[in-house]
Write a structure and sequence with these properties.
- It is found in: Membrane.
- One of its GO terms (molecular function) is fatty acid elongase activity.
- It is a multi-pass membrane protein.
- It comes from Stomoxys calcitrans (Stable fly).
- Pfam families: ELO.
- With 359 residues, this protein is mainly α.
- It has a domain of 234 residues.
- It contains ten helices and four strands.
- The strands form two sheets. Strands 1-2 form a two-stranded antiparallel sheet.
- Helix 2 packs parallel to helix 5, helix 2 packs antiparallel against helix 6 and helix 3 runs antiparallel to helix 7.
- The longest helix has 46 residues.
- The C terminus is likely disordered.
Length: 359
């Protein structure tokens, strides 16, 4: 214990001597441990304590709370975006190629320092995203990506506010708050109810937007490895590698959430093709419920299916034909004809109607 305290004291002395004196006495800035404690508490709360507490409770209905919260986050993110932009990036005072940290007490510079602290504080308000998932028993939404993203960000931003509040790395905050304006707008409309779902077709593109954000941050940060700029290389790697990590995490989420659906449809199609091959069906039944049901015989060629010339079936067929008998599903013809058996528009063969009960 004495050894641990010794190292803690050494770390505090280092931070006091190398940290920005302007933020030294600001809330949560004297030491990284309060921020670390909050982050660890968040992880324990949303992964262990919260689900356990909600296990035998009904999910909370929080529609109005969610609408208010997301609207507040939109406004808060827009304000921070404006403050970071007006303090440097959107006024021509900052260079996108190389921007050292300004340690003066110029009002514009101090405004950027305050914007950095508020950006740090916003990472705590975002914890509510996960807490609402817990209260609504949406455990499937509390993914590894979600917890890592929210759990790491306060600690990551703390170092920036402590040592480099301003300069090159604030580009991360500028982009991130803009993305959050769009993201929380989406969440707000989503919370308003099913009648707004038709306006939310762009969810897939929101994830793409987030990945583009991290690519831009990577390029912006790592360019300083190849040019001379009076900005700490340690923070270049810190920001850049965070962007790399989050890009791959979001990319994995994107593949599971969107491309995974295509894989499911492909597997379903392969299942039907294998069944068709097993039962000797010559024609292909498509996964989307369409069948090109041309019936081939030596002298018989008919295009059927409820009066549609192209043979499109509304619904999946799971039947098969063999030796003049037709097995039908939900009243639809499965594929082809053999021995000239006629298939009626409602999917029943005359042979089966007279000889046996249709299955």
């Amino acid at each position: 214990m004495a050894l641990v305290m010794k190292y803690i004291n050494i770390m505090h002395r280092y931070m006091d001597s190398h940290g920005d004196p302007r933020t030294k006495d600001w809330p949560m800035m004297s030491s990284p441990f309060p921020t670390l404690a909050v982050c660890l508490t968040y992880v324990y709360l949303v992964k262990v304590l919260g689900p356990r507490w909600m296990e035998n409770r009904k999910p909370f209905r929080l529609q109005n709370t969610l609408i208010f919260y997301n609207a507040a986050q939109v406004i808060f993110s827009a304000w921070i975006f404006y403050e970071i932009g007006i303090s440097g990036w959107l006024t021509g005072h900052y260079s996108f190629r190389c921007q050292p940290v300004e340690y003066s007490n110029n009002p514009r510079v101090i405004r950027m320092v305050h914007a950095c602290w508020w950006y740090y504080f916003s990472k705590f308000t975002e914890f509510m995203d996960t807490i609402f998932f817990v209260l609504r028993k949406k455990q499937s939404q509390i993914t590894t990506l979600h917890v890592i993203h929210h759990g790491c960000m306060p600690m990551s931003v703390w170092f920036g506010v402590k040592f480099t509040p301003g300069g090159h790395s604030t580009f991360f905050g500028l982009l991130n708050t803009f993305v959050h304006i769009v993201m929380y707008t989406y969440y707000m409309f989503s919370a308003m109810g099913p009648q707004y779902q038709k306006y939310l077709w762009w969810k897939k593109y929101l994830t793409t937007f987030q990945m583009v954000q991290f690519i831009l941050i990577m390029v912006h940060a790592f360019q300083l490895l190849f040019i001379d700029c009076n900005y700490p290389k340690a923070f270049v790697w810190w920001i850049g590698m965070h962007a790399v990590m989050f890009f791959f995490l979001f990319n994995e989420f994107y593949k599971q959430a969107y491309k995974g659906r295509k894989s499911q449809y492909k597997n379903l199609l392969m299942f039907f093709l294998q069944r068709a091959e097993k039962h000797g069906i010559e024609e292909t039944v498509l996964a989307n419920g369409h069948a090109n049901g041309d019936c081939h015989q030596q002298e018989v060629s008919k295009k059927l299916l409820n009066g549609h010339a192209n043979g499109k079936i509304n619904g999946l067929t799971n039947g098969s034909l063999a030796n003049g008998s037709a097995k039908t599903s939900n009243g639809y013809s499965s594929s082809g004809l053999k021995n000239g058996a006629a298939v009626l528009a409602n999917g029943h063969s005359t042979t089966e109607l007279t000889q046996r009960k249709v299955k």
